[in-house]
Structures are given as structure tokens and as C-alpha cells.
Amino acid sequence: MAEQRIRISIEGPVATITAARPEKLNAFDIDMLKELSAACDTIEENAAVRVAILTGEGKAFSAGGDIRAWAGMEANTFGHAWVRFGHRVFERLATLRMPLIAAVNGHALGGGLELAAAADIRIAETQVKIGLPEAGLGMVPGWSGTQRLVKRFGAQAVRRMLLGGEVLTAVEAQIAGIIDQVVKTGTAVEAAKAYAARIAARGPAATEVSKLMIAVANGEDNGAAVEALGSILVAKTGDLKEGVAAFTGKRPADFKGEW
Fold first, then answer.
1. What pLDDT score does 1 carry?
2. Residue 114: active-site member
3. What ranges do the domains of the chain cover?
4. Dist. CA 96–CA 118, nearest whole Å
5. Which one from 35, 57, 125, 134 is the annotated catalytic residue?
6. Is residue 227 among the annotated active site residues?
7. How far apart are CA 61 and CA 78, in angstroms?
8. pLDDT at residue 2, as a whole number
9. What are phi and psi of 169, to 5 degrees?
10. Any bridge partners for residue 130, and if so which?
């Protein structure tokens, strides 16, 4: 069996997802993307988990996509099997039911920054540098670097990194609104756990619904968020219970409009 490169640990209400490919600076290939998607399913299905932390093993958070994983792909395969698949996985991460904190313990470049952007809160160590070097390789961001990043951080910061090739320090990224907190080297995970404890102490239902409402306000995946909120509300009504009972009992429903 291949070595697991996305690891999960759960301590009480907090799940930690770790990208564990330090010899490649936690760069992603297809198998690693599949593992990340599976990790999202695992923690979301655990009702005890109220908040998640995302980090990298070793000296990097993530160097993004492994060039060797996609460089030889034919254009259509690159667009579908690599870009669109990776985009779906990162969207899955961004839409976890629980808040996600990125403990950015090392550089986050290209896909690594897109990975961090999927989190709700980003805590970075002081030595960290972030950027979008794709244009220097003759390519464009494919895992929501021009979409989620612009919605969450504004277009100008993305222009500076993508068009101008600027690499920002953790402090510069905090000033630009990309990083929420800067901490000492070696303390990002510790700081993320402290923040996770704050979140976990709050009402879990209110926290989950608040995350969805913020996503709607920010123009992120409005359709899914609205339908999720509506479905949760309707599922708690007397009408739904009556409708199911009538269906299974093969009788007309007697709806009362009970909320």
C-alpha cells in the first residue's frame, strides 16, 4: 500500500489534516488530491468534529502542484484530469461544514496559496512567503487562484502576485488581508489549536450556519449554500415529518404549516 500523504488526527472536537510529503515540499499530485478529498469526507462525517486545522509537514506548507505530475499531460487531460479535478477538491475543502484554519508553517506558493485560501482563517509563521508564480511558468492558476482569492482578498493583491510576480512576506500578506495572524516560527499549529478551541466553544449549529451565510454574502457557491440552509430549515418542520409519514402510509398528507 502506498504511503499515506494526507494524514488526519482528531483530538476532541478538532481535526487536523496534514499534507505529509515533505521531501517534495508537500506538492500535490493526483493521488494526493484524492487523499485530500477523502479526508474531507472523513472529518465531515464525524459529528464530533466542530473545527478543522490544515497544515504541512516539514518546512513547507505546500509548494502547490507537483510539476512532474502534470508537465507531460496532453492539453485536454491537463485541463480536465488535473485542473478541474484539483479545483473540485479545493472547493470541497472550502465548503466543509465546519470552520477550517490554515496553520501556514512554511511557504505557500501557487497551489499552496490556493490551498490556504480555502480556509476560513489563516495563521502564518513569520518566515513564510506567499505568491502566485504561475505566469512565470507560462500558465495561470487553476485551483481558484483568480476566483476565490479575488473574492476573499480583493483583486489588487492578486494582481500584484500574479501579474507582477510579487512574493509577499507573512507581515505583508497580513497587511493585504490575506493572513489573519502572524506568529513565531514553529508555532503556527499551536496557535491554530488555540484558535480552534475558541471556535469549538461556540454554538456548533450557529457556527455552521454562519459560515454558510458568510459564503452567500461573499458570492461563494450561493446556490449550494442557500439550498443547504433551506433544507436544514425545512427538515426541522412538522410538514416534512407529515409528508414522509403520508408517503410511507400511502395516504394524503395533512400539512399544518408547523415550523
1. 45
2. yes
3. 6-200, 204-249
4. 10
5. 134
6. no
7. 24
8. 63
9. -75, 170
10. 108, 168
